[in-house]
Design goal:
The structure is a homodimer. Chain A is α+β, with helices and mostly antiparallel strands and about 775 residues long. The first copy, chain A, is about 30% helix and about 25% strand. Chains A and B meet through strand 19, strand 20, strand 21, helix 16 and strand 25 of A and strand 19, strand 20, strand 21, helix 16 and strand 25 of B.
Chain lengths: ~775, ~775
């Protein structure tokens, strides 16, 4: 019997690296089918207007045009993630609500014909007054985007736990601050595209970059009024999701309609600009944080109010209204807390769930802790440790935290970053900052039944693993294969993976909300274990051993403690086949959570089965003349339960820090004309971090071995992504000696903060510099 | 609770009819992939030659050529269905053995370039002496095709059961006759094509018309030295198989090699002529039948010797050497029997398993019974009944026959055809004939493990059925869905089917050797029952009933006897999902047979789990001037166990009768030049029955409700196909009063028989006319 060696925890290279690096990976926009048509969407030039008529006759008459669709020839299906957030007609019929909303679409033999045909569609609009920020939208006389939502309040999340006012009253120190940030963009590498192919058996094949094939299929089946097993979302390579590809988009509905109408395959590819306007954006937000603490820095009460600019429709935005609060209440002990989150409709593109929930929210809470620590004369690190969540505790809204090594994350990243040597001792305009956060793991949003997996064997001992989990860039395909290979004693190369495809794979919630490893991984673990049980049963007879003594390793079945007693796995499979037993393992896993209908507006009970925790420390230098920030170093640490594949975990940490920190916190913001037109939908004007912008980073993996995660694993990377922004805001504030409360930390905002400081202190220097 | 109504036995229209009738069905030759290359095979002009060298340089240098393969750059993999029949290098290296054998192949940007490049390949041949018939091949000084097979005997099947010589000695009447037939063709509607696509994950996708995707994948994985789970045979529409698409062909190996070499998708489409030369053909055969019977017409002993012209390689031909004997020993009681079957190598295209096994074999046995009945003064019908197999008996080689209604088939078809009113009473040149046969059902050739199936459910109550069974024209897709729908109380439209695809589907032996309904259908039955058990478990709690009292019907679960207590199936699925249970049913089924290595050469024990039985009666008029035969009517009857879908069963009966009878018996024969070139590889010169050639036919379905067939079903159509030829030979012989022992019954052969009769009897009329 060979030396015990586990795949779990090994640095297994990604299966998709080569295809992606060599350009061979086929993304949706690369798909070409015989007879495929090209599609183009006609978009609204108005932020708010009544549609009086849509005349598609000229477009239809253009040679080469095969189908034209608009709200005029659909049933007016309304879409929303939850029953009570269905506010968007996938093709508008009466009204458009933002510049760029799709109004009609054409499928034609070539893209040029489709473009020309789209320009021939005549839409008669009656412009309506519009609102472009939450204050205008909530004004008493504001035009309403949706008549059934007075004050343009899309959703109001109101949470209260404990005696908040008593908490403030008993506090030694109470402070209220306001933090703001404009909209940001997901800016996935791959612009959105969709391909639809109507098949002879009455089913419809679809490809699109997405985070949840089974959810997409379900939503589209509802919208198209087709049985779910006839709407087949296929696998393709996906260039990022980040929360922005979770719900159904009008574009995939439109592509499906065009293909059904023309009875031909249809491809729709968004331009980069369309990807910014017509998919989703991060919410602009205005957050007021009031915190009371005792003299030792322990938080006694907190009250947060947040106004989020949601754009024209709900999408997954209502979830994004709760999530920053939930992350925050998981991360810190809070005897009493109140939250009012308002997501407000405006005549702008739609805000959705975003990987880095709440720049002005999470950063506000953390930066305020820094300020109050200073006011109390405490090290912010020490203050974090005093408030840090511990395993075995329950959150204010009732989630039991079964594993948590947040304090270790803080301590270990502080040690690596040299926090105690540096904090308060750095020269002028040189600062250090700390962010912490927590994220749900196995958060079953909007789908029943969790994830299921199937594994089947061939007579040569190879297996095929069938899982609905999608890999949209984070390496889920590796994760699935690694778990199955570990259980079965196979080499990962022995396992062929069918993932994502909704025809072949069983139910799965999707690779968003930190579910893939926990939910999908556990389903694979159960399926592989089920198969192994059958294999052991077969081998036990031949090896004259008890199944409990058998070990699967190195493509063989061994008897523990009797290294000479072994059978190749392939031989066991063939023995079973000769008896007519085809080994097929199956597994089904769903998080143990409270499925309460109203959890969105007022969450209660177990939100998620477990939670990850992270702490990021950043060190920066600020140029006081230009306001430019130079990120010297970032230390990224997270309790990810168990690092199944440290290489992927580190990739997630670093990607998260770049997205949430050096890109999101330092650069990104969407700008708008006063007519609601996005000024910077493209790469030239909207700034994201490029490789040269990525700062030096160090990773600290903290393992807590979660009792229900697969091999102890929880999500990896989100808690880093969500703490990186805070660390940078804290570091810049620490560097200049004045808290910066408007994000992102572009030079103008840094200079503005320096000016505020000067206005407050005059020539007396005030804080650190 | 609704009225009890079963899908089983209902006339369910075929799911593929519309696609096929409208031309929308995508066959392999229709597949187009981005960047796909076109392939062309260079074929040997010699029937037998040594390959001295192959120079591909000029072809490789032609612009647009992406890959060239020949035996020079393959490892010389030898292929054969069984370990001891591996005699064919998929690309020859030293020798070619028939005109048309593929020697090299090219993949290029266009077919024109591929053709030109193929013509630029220079093969230096040294011609060798060749043999074109079994007598020349078995001659002592004949050139050997395979040095390890003296006398060019590919396989010698030698079976002996009972005391044969004693049987003859004790017989009242003994007769020996010789029957001959040349090669015939499958002539599938769809010419062979193959598409190969190398994927980024190291797997290879393949499409080709085939009868057994999992067998193809296994064979190609062996030949290409790839893991089985990386060789993925996909589903496509298939235009017929008839036994001729069961084993691996050089062409799919070549297409795979070209695609791996070029790293591009490659398509190879055969011309109609290539389809005749380079796939498979039916064996030419020479059969000597000696039968002894008592005065009452009971057969006491039989000795059959058959020489089969096998062509250059084994393929599935060795199986075809046994099968006619096995069918015959199942059909008739035989106290003592001997069989010597010789499959002989010749320098002609390869003979394979053919749906209508043995024109000169089965027809010989049946026609001899007619002759002997006449000699005994018995009605041939009566003689058949006296010798007909009965349920509960065991065949000479040891197969127990668990269900058999052969006598009823004979009686019922005789009644419908008016046999007793007509036999011996028809006017001159007007005749009636009877054929009977039996076929194995669930005959597990060359693959382990039988068939497995998986069924999974969606929350809307729809299901997806996953089965490796392929539909190559007979309607298997319907059969699979029908069985699952019946068990689950669903409408067939509620079930999406994934079949054939070897990546997504579990193991299956293939749709040949009468396995699909029995083996694949039983696997589906078990998988659906497994799912139903889970559904009943879930519903029982909610309905407060025992699972044993539940009934699945009309998309609902009912409590038997309490029609008001019911739950929609979709609701039960959702209840299960809320608990994290994804309903996934699985089933695995393999025939209970003796897996003996040498069964091919000397079968023993249970050959097949059950057997079908058929009887066909034909009525003809012969024009004595021209020899033309006019088929007036055919009555087709078979014990198919249970007719799951009578419409499909009738289709199989009629298709079988056309193929085996009006086409195969009356028209078809391949002709050859003395250099071994096939003279009639195309539709113009090789005659198959056209719609106008199809005679009036009547179907008699006899059900025996087999104890292990799914819902009692056995194979449908083969026993008709295999008895139709005998019925026609009997009818023509009866019409002219002289047995015709050379087939097919073309006018020249009929006139020849009339001339023989005249030579024998002179002007005295002899027999009937």
């Amino acid at each position: 019997m060979p030396v015990e060696q586990s795949l779990i925890g090994s640095r297994m290279p990604r299966v998709d690296s080569e295809a992606k690096a060599t350009g061979r990976a086929i993304f949706t926009g690369d798909i070409s089918l015989p007879g495929m048509l090209q599609a183009k969407v006609l978009r609204s030039p108005y932020a708010h207007a009544r549609i009086k008529s849509i005349d598609t006759q000229k477009a239809e008459a253009l040679p080469g045009v095969r189908a034209v669709v608009s709200g005029m020839n659909t049933a007016g299906v309304k879409w929303g993630v939850f029953r009570y957030t269905r506010d968007q007609k996938l093709l508008p019929q009466e009204r458009v609500r933002y510049v760029g909303e799709g109004v009609a679409a054409v499928a034609a033999d070539t893209l040029e014909i489709a473009q020309e045909a789209a320009s021939l569609i005549k839409v008669d609009y009656e412009p309506l007054p519009a609102v472009f920020n939450v204050w205008d939208a909530m004004a008493p006389d504001a035009p309403l985007l949706h008549e059934d939502h007075p004050g343009n309040i899309n959703v109001h999340v109101a949470i209260e736990a404990g005696e908040v006012e008593e908490g403030f009253a008993g506090s030694y120190l109470v402070r209220e601050d306001t933090f703001t940030a404009p909209e940001d963009s997901y800016f996935m590498t791959e612009p959105y595209a969709a391909v639809a192919n109507p098949r002879q058996d009455g089913s419809l094949e679809l490809w699109m970059p997405n985070a949840a094939p089974h959810q997409k299929a379900k939503a589209l089946a509802n919208a198209l009024k087709m049985p779910l097993n006839k709407v087949i979302v296929r696998k393709s390579y996906i260039g990022g999701a980040f929360g922005g590809r979770s719900d159904v988009f009008p574009a995939e509905f439109i592509t499906a309609l065009l293909s059904l109408e023309s009875d031909r395959p249809v491809r729709l590819c968004f331009t980069r600009e369309e990807n910014s306007l017509a998919t989703r954006k991060g919410h602009g937000m205005y957050t007021i944080v009031k915190t009371g603490m005792d003299k030792q820095g322990r938080v006694l009460a907190r009250d947060v109010t947040c106004y989020m600019d949601g754009g024209a429709y709900s999408s997954t935005g209502p979830i994004a209204t709760s999530v920053p609060f939930l992350c925050h209440e998981q991360c810190y002990r809070l005897p009493a807390v109140r939250y009012n989150g308002y997501r407000v409709y405006t005549n702008k593109p739609i805000g959705g769930m975003y990987r880095v929930h709440g720049r002005a929210w999470a950063t506000g809470v953390d930066l305020q802790l820094d300020i109050m620590a200073e006011e109390l004369g405490l090290d912010p690190l020490e203050l974090r440790l005093r408030n840090a969540r511990q395993a075995g505790e329950t959150t204010p809204t009732g989630s039991y935290v079964q594993s948590c090594r947040l304090s270790q994350c803080i301590e270990q990243s502080a040690e690596k970053a040299g926090w105690r040597e540096k904090y308060g001792k750095l020269p002028a305009y040189h600062g250090i900052g700390l962010g912490t956060n927590s994220v749900q793991t196995g958060f079953p949003l909007g789908i029943r039944g969790g994830s299921a997996a199937i594994i089947k064997f061939n007579e040569d001992g190879g297996a095929t693993l069938i899982s609905g989990v999608v890999d949209n860039g984070q390496g889920n395909d590796n994760m699935l294969v690694q778990i199955a290979a570990e259980i079965l004693g196979l080499d990962p190369r022995d396992i062929q993976l069918i993932s994502a495809d909704t025809e072949a794979t069983p139910n799965d919630p999707g690779a968003y909300s930190m579910q893939a490893t926990f939910t999908g991984g556990n389903a694979v673990l159960l399926a592989a274990t089920d198969a192994r049980d059958q294999i052991f049963e077969e081998a036990a007879q031949a090896l004259e051993a008890h199944t409990r003594d058998l070990v699967a390793k190195d493509r063989s079945i061994y008897v523990a403690g009797a290294p000479d007693k072994a059978l190749p796995l392939a031989k066991v499979i063939r023995m079973a086949l000769l008896k007519g037993n085809n080994i097929i393992g199956r597994g089904s896993f769903a998080s143990k959570v409270d499925h309460r209908r109203e959890w969105l507006k007022n969450p209660q009970g177990q939100l998620s089965e477990t939670f990850s925790f992270g702490a990021t420390i950043a060190e920066v230098k600020v140029d006081p003349e230009t306001g430019e920030v130079d990120i010297l170093n970032m230390v990224l640490s997270q309790d990810c339960g168990k690092a199944l594949n440290p290489m992927l975990v580190e990739g997630q940490f670093e990607g998260g820090a770049v997205m949430g920190g050096s890109s999101g916190m330092m650069k990104e913001e969407h700008l708008w004309t006063k007519e609601g037109l996005c000024l910077n939908p493209g790469f030239l004007d909207y700034k994201v971090a490029l490789p040269l912008d990525v700062p030096p980073m160090e990773n600290v993996i903290v393992e807590s071995i979660d009792p229900t995660g697969p091999f102890g694993a929880k999500e990896a990377g989100m808690s880093v992504a969500m703490s990186a922004a805070q660390a940078l805001a804290g570091a810049v504030s620490n560097a200049i000696g004045w808290p910066v409360m408007e994000y992102p930390l572009t030079p103008d905002r840094v200079l503005n903060a320096l000016a505020q400081k000067k206005a407050a202190y005059g020539d007396s220097k005030g804080g650190k510099p």
